[in-house]
Amino acid sequence: MTDYDVLRVFCGPDGRHGNTLGVVRRGSAVPGTAERQALARKLGFSETVFVDDPERGVIDIYTPTLRLPFAGHPCVGTAWLLDVPELVTPAGPVGARLEGEFNWIEARPEWAPPRTLRRYDSAAEVDALPVPEPGEWIYAWAWEEEAAGRIRSRAFPGRGDGIDEDEATGAAALLLTAQLGRALNIAQGRGSQILTAPRPDGLIDVGGRVRLEATERL
Hints:
By secondary structure, the protein is an alpha+beta fold.
C-alpha cells in the first residue's frame, strides 16, 4: 500500500480551484524511477512528488510521462506540506517560506522547462481559446490591468497524456516574470491565483495558497 496526499496549489482568494498535486511522503515505498513513473501515470495528476528526505526537503518530481528536475506548483505545495525552509531538487536548492496565507518559493527561471509564452490582446481572447492539438507547451496570456501587473492566463501542456489544460503552473509564471521583469498577479484557469516577483540576485519569488484536499491510499 502507498499513501499519498492530494493538495491544491495556487488556490484562488475563496480557497477554491488551484492545481491538484500528489505527494508521496514516504518516497522509499516507491524506490525506482520506473516504478515512480508508473505510479505518476496511474494517479494522473499533472505532477506527482516523491519525498526522499522529509527533513532536508529532498524531492523527486514526475508528470504522467516524464521526470522533471524542477516544477513550480509541486515545489510550492510540497514545501508547504513538509514545512521546510528549503527543498532539494535535481535543478538546485529551492528556498521556501510562509507569509500569511501564501507559501513562497525562490527559483531560477532557467530551471523551468521550455514553454511557448503566447501573448493575446485581451483576457477575453484567452478565455475563448480552445484546447489545441497535442504539440508544443503553450502558456497563453494577456494583460488584465498592465499598470497593476494583473494578468489572465491559461496553460496547455500539449503532451497528449490526458491533461489538456493545467489549472495553475508556477514554472510558466516564472518564465513570464523573467521575460517581463516585474511582479505579477496572475489569474489562471478557472480561478487560480499565482503571485510572482523578481529579485536582484536573479531568483524569482513564486507564491500561492495551498490546501490539503485528502490523504489517500493506493
